[in-house]
Amino acid sequence: MTDTNAAFTPRVFSGIQPSGGLHLGNYLGAIKRFVDMQGEDFQTVYCMVDLHAITVWQNPTDLRKNTRELCAGFIAAGIDPEQSILINQSQVPEHAQLAWIFNCVARMGWMQRMTQWKDKAGKNTQNASLGLLAYPALMAADILIYHATHVPVGEDQKQHLELTRDIAIKFNHDYGVEFFPLTEPVIEGAATRVMSLRDGSKKMSKSDASDMSRINLTDDADAIAQKIRKARTDPEPLPETLDGLAERPEARNLVNIYAALAETTADAVIAEYGGQQFGTFKPALADLAVERLAPISTEMARLMGEQDEIDRILTRGAERAREITAPILKKTYDIVGMVPPAI
Ligand code: AQP
Predict the structure, then answer these.
(1) Using a 6 Å cutoff on CB, does residue 33 contact ligand 1?
(2) What is the pTM (predicted TM-score) of this model?
(3) Spatial distance between the Cα atoms of 185 and 269, rounded to a whole number of angstroms
(4) Rounded to an integer, what distance in angstroms lies between the CA atom of residue 183 and that of residue 12?
(5) Quick one: which of 51, 144, 181, 229 is 20 to 30 A from 246 by CA?
(6) What is the pLDDT of residues 105-117, one digit of tens each?
(7) Which sequence positions are flagged as catalytic?
């Protein structure tokens, strides 16, 4: 933690969009890290960011189902709703309220530089939603409404975390306060950027048209094995040293996935499998993936049968979250100059 944050309670916040099913990239880049940090010296808050999801069109029935399924995925992967605060963003209104203030702090140029805006809006920026452009200000609010000091994320979110710090710095500077912490990104592990199984230059993503490009946490053992068997690779055996993976993105991706699932390093994987063909390595990876993911998908399916319990967990999570967020919003309004209700 930086000295700037010494005054703040060590607190972790992170979120995932319920914009589709969870995949291996979300699991290794984010959820697995969420579970690890739960046991450390932090208060942990994990969120289904439903307000972010609607920056692109979501069918309402699917959005509700995906939000509950994501909650089931968090719990099945090891998030304990007693130890952590588990919420869906829309039940904690202070996220959106602080986001409005941050919309007035952030500059248009900052938003237009965001890679995700450029990627998702594409050439047709005039037709993209205003929410898609403002998304990073809401993300900054998600984090800073908890005064979160640490945010575990995949590599692709690094730029948004930098923007969160820029917003905190500008707010603190403009109002002459040291109110918001400078949040630290936590981008760790062997698979901070899991790539598509069909194209080693693209990240594994919910929105990829090809289901063969990703392993979903709801895939059964046969589907996982088939996707790994058909994953694009080159004809060479695995190299004897890690340097030999530098120009081989697909091979590097599979080695990183193996390392992350086995909780070891890519070096250790190469020490074991260097010189071997994919005909040997892929079945070993498939077995490992099934061993690690099957218990999660089984538990997710069970929890999805207990929708009332999921809804109760989210309601309780929101109550606990608001004990943190309401005072921080009140203080923010005071700093900004809003007249409070008369007592
Ligand atoms: N491929 C990935 N490798 C490692 N981490 C990843 N994350 C996402 N994809 C990978 C991490 O998962 C968390 C949730 O991110 P999100 O909800 O914003 O998901 P996303 O980036 O929208 O995921 P997708 O699959 O890429 O969705 P679309 O296709 O809709 O854009 C974050 O911590 C993210 O880093």
Answers:
(1) no
(2) 0.94
(3) 27
(4) 9
(5) 229
(6) 999 999 999 999 9
(7) 120, 203, 206
